[in-house]
Amino acid sequence: xxxxxxxxMKAAAVLAMTTSIAKAEDVEVLHxxxxxxEAAALNVLKEDLAAKGxxxxxxxxxxxGGEAAxxxxxxxxxxxxxxxxxxxxxFDIQDWAAEGALGNLDDVATAEGWDAxxxxxxxxxxxxxxxxxxxxxxVHSTNWVWINKAALDATGLGEPKSWDELVAVLDKMxxxxxxxxxxxxxxxxxxxxxxxxxxxxGADFYxxxxxxLDPAALGGEKMAAAFDHLIKLRSYMDDNFxxxxxxxxxxxxxxxxxxxxxxxxxxxxxxxxxxKVPGTDFVCIRFPGTQGAVTFNSDQFAMFAVQGDAKIAxxxxxxxxxxxxxxxxxxxxxxxxxxxxxxxxDTDFDDCGxxxxxxxxxxxxxxxxxxxxxxxxGAPASVKNAxxxxxxxxxxxxYADGAAAAKALADAVAAxx
Length: 417
Description:
The chain has helices spanning 2-21, 36-51, 67-78, 90-98, 106-112, 114-117, 120-126, 149-155, 163-175, 187-199, 203-211, 215-219, 221-234, 246-254, 267-273, 309-323, 325-335, 351-366, 381-395, 402-416, and strands spanning 27-31, 56-60, 85-88, 127-128, 131-132, 134-136, 138-141, 144-148, 179-181, 258-262, 282-286, 294-297, 300-303, 338-339, 369-371.
């Protein structure tokens, strides 16, 4: 409680400091949170700012991976009219900072002590050249499996903890006439599954392949095995998966049309919005073979360099609101993610949320917390996009086997660097 009061006083001091220069005006926010669960979470931030007298001008750009939003952003910046704040991921933040397009949040971060409570793995993307340029909203971990509990119970098998156990469960679901895997055939969704398959080959291997970009790892036997597993998983998907949005795949699991979905923990927001209860209606587990390791992405609001004291004051007030511990808890309870701050208690989180916070802390301490390649936190966009092309080609049956796909991946990453 004392920590909360201290933060509240600091936040008030920063807000007073920023609004003493000029009255904060509306914030124009570009984002891609348009699904039901995402929109519900975003409303927490809108309402928080409204209570401070700050209006919200919404600029939603649909598309779960954010690619369309980045295209819209480029057009706005080129026209000399950037939004106040933009939802952004990983290396995209760094790329915009390198162009000199982002503002500076150092005074807010210093007054509120962000350095002490935001993990270094996130600061890698929140800072540029030692300066705070973005406010992290959350930490999503991506190596999750969401399972319809009734479908799992009907198999007579337990929660799968290994690849062989996973295949056994999927086979039983298929025999029962249910689509085993709900999937949306979009490149970022394909890559989300493959991310987990690579991590399942070992944490050290994931780091070598997707963080260090070691050619031997990218084209070797373990990568070939991961591709073989990806090709196998394709056989458990329905024939209409191409182009399906991720939240529609989540709905298939929620409604009992499919057995499970391999997706980041934003999927939980869809289950909760549908009134489903963890442990009763659905099960959340780490992708089999990845227990003890976590791949993550972090939604952050990058603040663009804007003109005028009022606009700058609005940005700083928004940053203060985002990093408030009370907001971090309220937002992430709804969103399905976990707080970007390490000092937020898990009291209000459900069982999946508590597990997510525990897993994140343990992986961070063990050195097995990795930025997700699939979600722009493993390597720059050029490399990520090169992996997307090969992974999606593999899902669509364009390689004879995993070895051929692994060779293609190594070649594609080499060409992209």
